[in-house]
Amino acid sequence: xxxxxxxxxxxxxxxxCRRRYNTGLEQRIISYRRVGxxxxxxxxxxxxxxxxxxxxxxxxxHSHVLQDVLARLDKTFQAFFRRVLVxxxxxxxRYQPATxxxxxxxxxxxxxxxxxxxxxxxxxxxxxxxxxxxxxxGTLKTVTIRQExxxxxxxxxxxxxxxxxxxxxxxxxxxxxxxxxxATLSDGAQIATPxxxxxxxxxxxxxxxxxxxxxxxxxxxxxxxxxRAKAHLKVKRQRQDFHHQMALQLMRQYDTxxxxxxxxxxxxxxxxxxxxxxxxxxxxxLTILVFKAVxxxxxxxxxxxxxxxxxxxxxxxxxxxxxxxxxxxxPYEDCGASLHRDHNAAxxxxxxxxxxxxxxxxxxxxT
Length: 367
Known about the structure:
Blueprint: H1 4-35, H2 41-46, H3 48-54, H4 56-59, H5 63-85, E1 103-106, E2 113-116, E3 119-122, E4 126-129, E5 139-148, E6 151-159, E7 172-177, E8 183-185, E9 190-191, H6 196-213, H7 219-253, E10 256-260, H8 264-267, H9 274-280, H10 282-296, E11 299-303, E12 327-329, E13 338-340, H11 341-355
Parallel strand pairs: 7-10, 10-11
Antiparallel strand pairs: 1-5, 2-3, 3-4, 5-6, 7-8, 8-9, 12-13
Helix pairs in contact: 1-5, 6-7, 7-10
C-alpha cells in the first residue's frame, strides 16, 4: 500500500529497469552482428558501475535490482539457445514495452530490502505499508515488487518452508482433463468447468469496445484501459482460485494422482478448440497440482496420454472413435464395456501409473 509519492517512485524504478533491459538487449544484438559473439551477463554487469557514475537516475536504484535485470535478459538468451539446440521453434528475445514489463527484484533479502514491524523497507524508495496475505515461513531470500492492474504486490521467496503434511489416505487416482468437463477421475466423478472467461466475455467485449472508442493518448482512454485490465485480472484470479481449490481437494482425497503429460502449446493450434483449452488452463492447473503435492508430501505423476481414450480400460484393445464420440462402447463380445470416454481414459492412466512402465516425469520439477 504505497503512498502516492512512493507509487510514483516505484513506477520510475520500473521504467528505468525496463530501459536498462532494452539497452542491454540492444548491446547484445549489436555485438553479435559486428563481432559474431554476444555479450555475457557478467561483462554487462561490469559496466553498471560506470553507468551509475554517469547517470544519476541509475545511481538512485540499488545495484542488485539492476543486476537482476541483466540476469533476466541472460535467462531469455539461454532459453533461446536451448530451443535452438533441441530443434524447437526459437523466438529471439524482444524489446519490452511498458505494457509487458511489470516487476523488479531485490535478489538478496537484507541488502536492499528488509522488514520492520510489518513494513517493507526498500533501499532508496522508503518504508512501505503492506497488507499481508499470510505469515512468512522459512528464510527470506528475494523480494519481487510487481505492478498489477489494481495496485502493487510484493512476492517473497523463502527457503526451508516446512511441509504441511496431509493425512495419508492410501488412495490413487487417474485424471483425464477434458473440455466437456474440466476433469474426470478414475472413479467416474466429474469436475465441472468453471467457465470464468465465458461468463465474463460479454463484459470484456464492452470494455474492449470502450477502449476502441476513446481517443488515443487521452485520459479517458487510459482510464478505460485500466478498467479492461482489471476485468481480465478478475477472470485470471477466478480461474487460479478454482485451480488451487481443485488441487487441494485432490491431495486431500488421494496420495498419488496420475495426470496427463499434455503439450498444450501444440493443442491450442487447433483453432476450433483453442479458446476452450485456454479457458480451462490445463498447464497452470498441472503446475499448481504438483506444487500442492510437494507441499503436502504426496505425489503428482505425469503419464503419457497417447491412446488412453482409444484403448479400452477393461480388455486393453484399441477401439477407434472420433473426438465427437463421447461414449466408449467396446465392440468385442467378451468385453462389452460401456462407459464415458473420459472415464475410460482416466482408468487407463491409473493403470499406466500403477504399472510404472508407462510413468513419465512430474509435470514440473519439485521446488
